[in-house]
Amino acid sequence: MTKEQVHEAKDLRHLLSAEAKSRQNSPLKDAFKYYKLPGMTFLGGGLPLSDYFPFNKVTADIPTPSFTRGIGAPLTEDNKATIEVYKKADENGENQVELARSLQYGYTEGMPEIVKFLKEHTEMIHNVPYKDWDLIVTVGNTESWDSTLRTFCSRGDTILVEEFSFSSALETANGQGINTVPVTMDEYGIIPSALENLMAHWIGNKPKLLYTISTGQNPTGSCLSAERRREIYKIACKYDFIIVEDEPYYFLQMETYTSDKSKREGKHVHGHEEFIKALVPSFISMDTEGRVIRLDSFSKVLAPGLRFGWIVGQANLLERFLRLHEVSIQCPSGFTLSLTNGLLQNWGQSGYLDWLIGLRAEYTHKRDVAIDAIAENLPKDITSYVPPVAGMFFTITLDVSKHPKFKELGLDARKIETLIYEQSIKQGTLMIPGSWFKSEGQSTPPQKNLPHNPSHDTHVFFRGTYAAVPLDQLVFGIQKFGKAVKIEFGLE
């Protein structure tokens, strides 16, 4: 605990859902505190004897810090380490999670070794400014978001979301009968004044949550500045709602784009302190009241298939998540726990930062290649874009009012969007239409006196990623999309 952490979080349990409030502690789970207590013969749980687990050892080859050859370099004897995790505790090294434990029931909150590592990491990066914060492990941010909705919302409730948001996150809310009201965005994320105006004119029961992918936003690629985050946090305190920051892309922050290739050399951050200072402050780092729920994940920095994430927030609220997880996910896969913990213990906090610094350099280069290709291949008089400073995505905005069929199709921007999408498929490249991510929710009853953004009537955007393909395919794909746009607008 740092010297700033002198107070406890504000009690926000009044924002919990009826389901969350009704959950009782599981007496069976409570009994597990006696498991492996010296002198205790534990006959109280349905735990299979670990001798019967048919896995005696798992191994994995991993790269070693400081990744000077690049994080994607082939492994050789000079840059490789091997993790070996055995079934029995006495066969393992220090701070390993043996298979007899990881493949067993228990530890819904997370194995102590990896929770300790994640807490140290959180303190280093975010320095949560109140003392009774905690974290629990999850099976990734998709599950974390589902659990967050169940913990705070009931069917018929309303939440705030970004005007364009991750379609699966919107559908998660829709499936639970939760209404999603959009907050107006621009190319830099949520507009604080629009959020304030929305809340000031709200009619009826106010929302409990604001869901935001605030860094490397999916789909727009936008990144909220520190100033905007502080303004949004003040609004959350004023109107008593919780900010859910979904942050799988947080460490995919990059150098600022420059079209001058000669100026790109030597711009990368190198030291750990420089890297941490370069990160945009998170919502949880400015959360003095304990009203931020942070969803973190290894999906975008290690591997999606690990299905391993964690939630950071005030302990009183996370206790309710824990009760839900005890009767749902229980815990991440035991193999994931043992191998991910083994990797992190091998690297240490320093080595993990080295890995993240390497990712920053890789994604900066991929972003640069994508933006260079857009500048070269898209017609400038109908195209606009903002080079992203975080995440995996770029967006290309098109002025559809200049499309030859705009008037013929009734000034309907989405019809032009569909034509462009279909033409891009014909040309052999897939870019996702922005309308697929549009939040169509509406407050009940509708709000009054809210600003209308007319640019949305004449502009559409398409989302692409520079993360999924090799660089030559990235450039080729953007070239083909550029050709599709030129064909549709009668420029080729």
From TrEMBL:
Q: Which domain of life is it from?
A: Eukaryota
Q: For this protein, what is the EC number?
A: 2.6.1.57
Q: Which reaction does it catalyse?
A: an aromatic L-alpha-amino acid + 2-oxoglutarate = an aromatic oxo-acid + L-glutamate
Q: Does the keyword Transferase apply?
A: yes
Say where the protein is mainly found.
cytoplasm
Q: Which GO terms describe its cellular component?
A: cytoplasm
Entry's localization field: Cytoplasm
- Output the Gene Ontology terms for molecular function: 2-aminoadipate transaminase activity; aromatic-amino-acid transaminase activity; pyridoxal phosphate binding
Q: Where is the Aminotransferase class I/classII large domain?
A: 70-404
Q: Which GO terms describe its biological process?
A: aromatic amino acid family catabolic process; L-phenylalanine biosynthetic process; lysine biosynthetic process via aminoadipic acid; tyrosine biosynthetic process
- Enzyme class comes to transferase
What cofactors are annotated for this protein? Answer: pyridoxal 5'-phosphate
Give the record's keywords alphabetically: Aminotransferase, Cytoplasm, Pyridoxal phosphate, Transferase
Family affiliation? Belongs to the class-I pyridoxal-phosphate-dependent aminotransferase family.
Question: What is this protein's name?
Answer: aromatic-amino-acid transaminase
